[in-house]
Design goal:
10 helices, disordered C terminus, four-stranded mixed sheet, 22% strand
């Protein structure tokens, strides 16, 4: 990092949080939308035109070479030498571009650029979600009616520890007092959850006791041996050395590998152009409770039994 960048970062870190947020928004609009008006800042933060002008002036003081005024329509535009002042996290940028930058409370958010993304076929009721997130935040148990494929409709007492989006639905990771262990509960199958204010949490019910949640697995993903164009796969996944290393929780590994359509068979036997990646070492999933969900995964214990029977 050069001296000017260090000074710039020191100046930014010394500013109040609210001021940094306004400057980050200016930076965002210049970088990703290519234009900025005073009204953009004033409307986003509920300030007047004079305050927006001061914010833009301060941004210009810190990064004078980042923007110039287009007098034809009174719009600031990024210069060819533009260098973003802030590190914009890709996921947050894509969320902002597709769903808005936090505007529209109480109404449907609009995208900032024309875009399309998958429709969610299932979303939890807010009246179900709210007690669950309160329980997670406050470290409380809750009682709920839950319908499972295995047991049907039953009443459960659970201790939620985390929300999980597996790509097709939301579930909550929680300690199940009925089955004495940590389980995944699909939010749309829960009804009338009630926070249990006076129910103490036992040591075995706490998040640090969930072995599957706390175990981190490093997955080494490589271009699928059957894929016709390995260089395309490497470009798609940003893997110049031919390996994509991803760290996941054992409790979630199978969900994610299924969502990503990763061939986890030991002999990369799955066919189809959708299988762009192969899990180079399927044994890395051994012992993960969700491993059976991974495409093509074969439990080494079961595979050994089959081999033994075949050899007889």
């Amino acid at each position: 990092m050069n001296t000017s960048a260090i000074v710039r970062d020191q100046v930014l870190s010394a500013l109040p949080q609210a001021q940094r947020e306004r400057l980050a928004y200016i930076d965002f609009r210049l970088y990703f939308l290519g234009e900025l008006r005073r009204a953009d800042v004033a409307d986003r933060f509920g300030t007047g035109p004079a305050a927006a002008t001061r914010d833009i002036a301060q941004y210009r003081d810190i990064a004078s070479g980042n923007l110039e005024l287009d007098n034809s329509d009174k719009v600031y535009r990024p210069t060819e030498e533009f260098v973003p002042l802030f590190d914009h996290a890709p996921q947050r940028v894509l969320t902002a571009l597709s769903s808005g930058f936090g505007e529209g409370i109480g109404e449907e958010l609009g995208s900032m650029v024309r875009c399309e993304f998958p429709i969610e076929l299932t979303t939890p009721q807010m009246s179900t979600l709210a007690p669950i997130t309160r329980a997670i935040h406050r470290g409380k148990a809750l009682r709920t009616t839950y319908t499972s494929i295995e047991s049907g409709c039953t009443e459960r007492e659970i201790v939620p520890i985390a929300l999980v989006n597996n790509g097709s639905r939301w579930h909550v990771r929680a300690y199940d007092r009925r089955r004495n262990g940590f389980r995944d509960f699909v939010l749309t199958r829960m009804e009338t959850p009630v926070l249990l204010e006076n129910s103490p949490i036992l040591e075995k019910e706490k998040v640090d006791q969930d072995v599957q949640w706390n175990r981190i697995i490093e997955l080494e993903l490589v271009p699928h041996p059957r894929h016709p164009r390995h260089e395309v796969v490497m470009m798609d996944y940003g893997m110049p050395d031919g390996v994509l290393r991803v760290k996941v929780r054992a409790a979630n590994a199978g969900y994610l590998l299924r969502r990503w359509t990763i061939d986890c068979s030991p002999d990369h036997r799955l066919e189809g152009i959708e299988f762009a990646l192969w899990l180079r070492d399927p044994l890395s999933l051994y012992g993960a409770s969700s491993a059976h969900l991974a495409p093509g995964y074969v439990d080494p214990k079961n595979d050994a039994k089959i081999t033994s029977i075949t050899a007889m």
